[in-house]
Design brief:
Blueprint: E1 2-5, E2 11-15, E3 18-22, E4 40-48, E5 53-59, E6 63-70, E7 73-77, E8 82-85, E9 90-94, E10 99-105, E11 112-119, E12 129-133, E13 145-149, E14 157-158, E15 163-170, E16 175-179, E17 184-192, E18 195-197, E19 200-202, E20 207-210, E21 215-220, E22 224-232
Parallel strand pairs: 13-14
Antiparallel strand pairs: 1-20, 2-3, 3-4, 4-11, 5-10, 6-9, 6-11, 7-8, 7-10, 9-12, 13-15, 15-22, 16-21, 17-20, 17-22, 18-19, 18-21
Length: 234
């Protein structure tokens, strides 16, 4: 079954310094009927004004994957890790029993857009840590690029959960498929551009839930930028 989530149906948090669009119940957005998607607990799409962001705050017992769509995301944490992510870069934070971190717009004059993905880990008290990776643009052009996985895959950030995260940038008119393994489900977000999946259209920010499907087949109606999370079915 395919379920379309239109952009206009997302919860919008218009806060001082940023605008967030929440795909699942999170923070001030309390929605018992929309509590995540398998082990995917949250997927938040933020646009942050220059010089603004999320000052030092605490997380525990969660894995956080941050994907930079536009601008410069500056990460720092209580373990001394620091990084600047740019378009296509991915950062991974394991909070373990507890860490503090900050995510700020590093640019003084450009907006930052990044997607924050929160995944429930497969155990409590995991070692806290941070890693990041820069992927070349050609590695995601008209194909799926796996950027994070619970399996050990060369060149992919390894997380502590049975989940996979993919990115793609698709040329206008190009078609792309994804075979969904048995007992798996997919949450796909159209970050930029527009596309059609089995007659369902997606505009920027919109999403598709695919459950009980064997394959996704999509066509980019204009140049499109996609993010997809694959997890085990409940």
């Amino acid at each position: 079954m395919l379920c379309r989530i239109p952009t206009e149906d997302l919860y919008v948090d218009d806060a001082n310094g940023h605008v967030g669009r929440f795909h699942f119940s999170y923070g001030d957005y309390v929605a018992p009927s929309n509590e995540g998607f398998g082990v995917l607990d949250a997927l938040n799409d933020f646009v942050v004004r220059p010089g603004e962001g999320f000052d030092t705050h605490r997380h525990e017992e969660v894995e956080i994957v941050s994907y930079c769509v536009q601008g410069e995301l500056r990460h720092s944490d209580s373990m001394g890790s620091a990084a600047i992510l740019r378009r296509g870069d991915v950062g991974y934070q394991c909070a373990g029993a507890g860490i503090t971190h900050a995510e700020m717009n590093h640019s003084p004059d450009e907006h930052l857009r990044f997607v924050q993905i929160l995944i429930r880990p497969n155990a409590s008290g995991l070692p806290a840590g941070y890693r990041s990776h820069r992927y070349p643009a050609h590695a995601r052009r008209n194909k799926w690029l796996r950027v994070a996985s619970g399996r050990s895959v060369n060149g992919t950030l390894q997380i502590s959960q049975d989940a996979d995260i993919f990115i793609s940038e698709v040329d206008k008119g190009a078609r792309l498929t994804f075979a969904i393994p048995d007992e798996r489900q997919v949450y796909l977000v159209c970050l930029e551009g527009s596309l059609a999946i089995s007659g369902l259209g997606l505009k920027p920010g919109g999403a598709i839930k695919a459950t009980g499907e064997a394959e996704l087949s999509l066509e980019a109606l204009e140049e499109a930028h996609l993010l997809m999370v694959e997890v085990a079915s409940p």
